């Protein structure tokens, strides 16, 4: 059969499209839930109205976003069985458990409390309403943990044995699956990267309004919150990425070698900045690299030996039998660079912004600004950025606000494609995982339908986000400022319109 | 009772929860065209399920995830075998969720009308397809020695299964109508009561026909008991709504759904997905289930999580216990 239309290829494309799309909403949901909860906490504690307006503004964007995350997530849970039935049969005993845990513990939490939060403004006392958004946030984090434990098992299977008679993997140690270092490192890295997404999103939108001198009190607060989030999350993403890289080097050396297009193993292996390779010949034709850095990234030493693609391929052939055990090298190489590049660019802009907008530290009295003034961007001492440069910073912040999202996507493309040809590393290959009973026509149909539907929904969602971003934070109403004191809402006026209705 | 039997029961419980809860959600969706006279009334209906539909839908994800974990072979055969119908259900659930959240986020009439059409169709279609799917599971489909579905799409559209689809559509609509009567106030409440009296008897006839056919082909004493409970509670639900006892009627229509699901699972046991080609190729609680270790962990998880979920979901219904009428729907386009 034509390889381009092989069932495995089609099913992989569909999984790739639907999963990358789903994960555009996931990191933003995780981070915005917590950031919105933080802002609402500030409102409850200080009674400062700007925090409530900020909560309503970011909360609205969060809700537009989580709706898409939730509905595209349903597909994720179904398509293992639909398109990867032999995978499901083989791994269900191990892989199904964290998925079921995710549904029973995290999804119920998230979905029930988000409903309470959306409709609860005039039904719940202030503090209980606040608790609801924290529950949503907890749900998103728990969900991240369980699904990453499942994914980590595909990267590095542990706590299982092979039952030859049933022809499947069986769980022997669930605790080990949940707490192996791959799962913890992936969780750490994914959560921090998610906050980088939300932080940059906040900074970009706040910059948009501040550049136009609108909604200043709310946007000043949002800008600072966003910048702090970007810097803290960005640094932690780098740290966790380093940890994860070292774990990966030990567990999946092929992925590390592919990420660097390191064909032959060497001591003091270089970090490649740019390479054009010849996959068939197994070497690079052009390469610019920094000596020793790869060894350091993989093993904390500039002189450690890092095995190359050709060495590992040979070793895996000896271990698993004849075959090509190399992933798509150009994809692995470039996705790794784009992940790091886009992520680090955001961190740098965040660091710059945090410095420029600092409030007191080395800022002369005359340049300090009040609550309703756009902050000066102070370089050093009395030196303020010129209006032109100030505008340039706001515009750059706006146009780079999706950089971390791009980095997240490439990170997943890297980690999943870098594992190929394995679906469960060293245990089960992707070509054996597809549903034998699902026809080419069926997969083509579903792929076209999903792609078309997702494209339409993307247009709708982005336009809606733009509308609400431009509208800015809402004016507060009497109801907003007088939340009910008892559960179920005020009693006095039974015919009062709902504070929020669909 | 071995653990895989416990899990057979638990899967049935999760599906019962799903059909009970999203059953009236689907019903409300259908009523937006059947009962509501204008946009405000449509919004009243939609807002009766506004805070809860998302949590209700998670029962499906739990049923799916639990089937994957407890009966991987069942999950694999069912989901790959019913590929296109499931695709349609997925599309509907995607559009439906977005429709609820986005409908009121723009003031344009066309925007709102389009999403309202979407809510109707994406509620109606899955309400039918779940019945078709369960009809086929009970009836048995072409499964080969490798546990693969080898039938075609048209095999799934047989009269028995289609009747099953009609039953779930009517049952969910009736359940939703009673829910609407229970949760609304004013003119729409009265009309919901009257509509329930009209659709109730049709629902009863269809459901009884389907369940009796099922009993005749696959039933035993226990399934007959479930059938009787389903039939009696459905008739009682109609009687209760006729006397204006909305709460009782809703509980009884819920009991009907639970008893009907119980009956279908009783006729299946010990199979989970029988093969129509050869009895030896049936998927059973034994040959489709996970290892005892996995089932033990899952039992702990479900045993702790499910009661907690019921508690906080129940609390949600209590928080939003007040009835909604047209006066509660703000006219202004909500921009915040």
What does this structure look like?
- The complex is a heterodimer of chains A (502) and B (336).
- Chain A is mostly helical and 502 residues long.
- Chain A has helices at 7-46, 49-83, 85-119, 126-155, 174-179, 181-211, 216-251, 253-260, 293-299, 309-320, 329-356, 387-399, 403-417, 440-471, 478-481; strands spanning 160-163, 168-171, 266-267, 271-278, 283-290, 305-306, 378-380, 383-384, 422-424, 428-429.
- A two-stranded antiparallel sheet of chain A has the order 1-2.
- In chain A, helix 2 runs antiparallel to helix 14, helix 7 crosses helix 8 (253-260) and helix 11 (329-356) packs antiparallel against helix 13 (403-417).
- The longest helix of chain A is centred in the N-terminal third of the chain and has 40 residues, at 7-46.
- The termini of chain A are far apart.
- The model of chain A has no long low-confidence stretch (mean pLDDT 92).
- Chain B is mainly alpha-helical and 336 residues long.
- Helix content of chain B is 76%, strand content 1%.
- Chain B contains twelve helices and two strands.
- Chain B has helices at residues 3-34, 39-49, 53-70, 72-81, 83-102, 109-139, 153-156, 159-183, 187-218, 221-242, 246-268, 292-319, and strands at 271-273, 283-284.
- A two-stranded antiparallel sheet of chain B has the order 1-2.
- In chain B, helix 3 crosses helix 4, helix 3 (53-70) packs antiparallel against helix 12 (292-319) and helix 8 runs antiparallel to helix 9 (187-218).
- The longest helix of chain B has 32 residues, at 3-34.
- Chain B is globular and about 60 Å long.
- At the A-B interface, helix 2, helix 3, strand 2 and helix 14 of A face helix 2, helix 3, helix 4, helix 5 and helix 12 of B.
């Amino acid at each position: 059969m034509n390889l381009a239309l092989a069932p495995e290829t089609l099913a992989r494309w569909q999984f790739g499209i639907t999963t990358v799309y789903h994960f555009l909403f996931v990191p933003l949901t995780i981070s915005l839930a917590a950031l919105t909860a933080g802002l609402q906490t500030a409102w409850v504690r200080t009674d400062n109205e700007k925090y409530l307006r900020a909560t309503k503004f970011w909360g609205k964007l969060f809700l537009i976003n989580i709706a898409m995350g939730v509905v595209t997530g349903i597909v994720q849970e179904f398509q293992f069985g639909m398109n990867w039935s032999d995978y499901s049969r083989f791994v269900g005993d191990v892989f199904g458990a964290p998925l079921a845990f995710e549904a029973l513990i995290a999804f119920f939490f998230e979905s029930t409390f988000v409903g309470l939060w959306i409709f609860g403004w005039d039904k719940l006392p202030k503090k209980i309403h606040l608790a609801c958004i924290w529950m949503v946030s907890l749900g998103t984090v728990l969900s991240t943990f369980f699904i990453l434990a499942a994914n980590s098992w595909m990267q590095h299977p542990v706590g299982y044995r092979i039952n030859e008679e049933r022809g499947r993997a069986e769980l022997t140690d669930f605790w080990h699956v949940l707490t192996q270092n791959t799962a913890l490192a992936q969780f750490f890295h994914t959560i921090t990267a998610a906050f980088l997404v939300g932080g940059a999103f906040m900074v970009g939108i706040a910059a948009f309004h501040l550049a136009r001198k609108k909604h200043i009190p709310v946007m000043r607060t949002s800008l600072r919150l966003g910048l702090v989030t970007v810097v803290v999350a960005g640094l932690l993403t780098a740290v966790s990425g380093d940890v994860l890289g070292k774990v990966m080097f030990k567990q999946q050396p092929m992925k590390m070698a592919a990420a660097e297009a390191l064909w032959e193993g060497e001591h003091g292996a270089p970090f490649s900045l740019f390479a054009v390779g010849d996959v068939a010949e197994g070497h690079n034709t052009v390469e610019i690299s920094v000596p020793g850095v790869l060894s350091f990234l993989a093993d904390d030493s500039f002189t450690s030996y890092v095995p190359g693609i050709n060495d590992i391929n040979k070793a895996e052939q000896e271990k698993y039998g004849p075959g090509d055990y190399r992933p798509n090298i150009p994809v692995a190489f470039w996705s790794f660079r784009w992940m790091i590049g886009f992520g680090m660019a955001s961190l740098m802009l965040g660091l710059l912004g945090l410095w420029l907008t600092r409030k007191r530290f080395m800022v002369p009295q005359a340049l300090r600004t009040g609550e309703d003034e756009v902050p000066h961007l102070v370089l050093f001492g009395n030196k303020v950025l010129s209006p032109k440069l100030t505008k340039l910073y706001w515009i750059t912040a706006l146009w780079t606000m999706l950089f971390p999202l791009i980095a997240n996507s490439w990170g997943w493309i890297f980690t999943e494609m870098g594992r190929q040809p394995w679906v469960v590393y060293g245990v089960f290959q992707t070509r054996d995982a597809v549903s034998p009973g699902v026809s080419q026509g069926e997969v083509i149909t579903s792929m076209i339908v999903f792609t078309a539907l997702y494209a339409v929904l993307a247009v709708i969602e982005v336009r809606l986000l733009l509308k609400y971003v431009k509208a800015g934070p809402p004016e507060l109403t009497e109801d907003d400022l007088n939340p009910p004191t008892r559960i179920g809402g005020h009693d006095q006026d039974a015919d009062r319109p709902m504070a929020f209705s669909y | 009772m071995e653990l895989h039997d416990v899990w057979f029961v638990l899967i049935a419980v999760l599906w019962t929860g799903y059909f009970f809860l999203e059953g009236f959600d689907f019903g409300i969706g259908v009523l937006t065209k059947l009962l509501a006279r204008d946009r405000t009334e449509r919004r009243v209906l939609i807002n009766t399920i506004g805070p809860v539909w998302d949590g209700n839908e998670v029962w499906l994800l739990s049923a799916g995830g639990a089937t994957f974990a407890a009966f991987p072979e069942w999950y694999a055969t069912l989901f790959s075998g019913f590929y296109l119908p499931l695709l349609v259900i997925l599309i509907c659930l995607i559009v439906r969720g977005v429709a609820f959240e986005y409908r009121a986020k723009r003031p344009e009439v066309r925007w709102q009308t389009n999403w309202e059409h979407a809510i109707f169709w994406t509620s109606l279609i899955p309400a039918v397809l779940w019945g078709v799917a369960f009809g086929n599971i009970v009836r048995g489909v072409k499964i080969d020695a490798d546990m693969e579905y080898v039938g075609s799409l048209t095999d799934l559209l047989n009269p028995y299964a289609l009747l099953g689809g009609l039953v779930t559509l009517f049952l969910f609509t009736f359940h939703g109508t009673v829910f609407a009567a229970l949760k609304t106030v004013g003119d729409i409440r009265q009309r919901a009561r009257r509509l329930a009296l009209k659709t109730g008897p049709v629902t009863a006839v269809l459901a009884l026909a389907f369940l009796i056919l099922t009993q005749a082909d696959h039933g035993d004493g226990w399934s007959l008991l479930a059938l009787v409970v389903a039939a009696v509670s459905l008739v009682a639900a109609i009687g209760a709504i006729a006397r204006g006892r909305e709460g009782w009627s809703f509980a009884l229509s819920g009991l009907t759904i639970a008893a009907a699901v119980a009956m279908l699972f009783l006729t299946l046991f010990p199979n989970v997905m029988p093969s129509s080609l050869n009895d030896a190729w049936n998927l059973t609680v034994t040959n489709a289930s996970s290892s005892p270790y996995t089932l033990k962990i899952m039992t702990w998880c479900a045993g702790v999580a499910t009661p907690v979920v019921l508690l906080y979901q129940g609390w949600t219904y209590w928080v939003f216990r007040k009835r909604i009428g047209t006066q509660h729907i703000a006219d202004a386009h909500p921009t915040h």
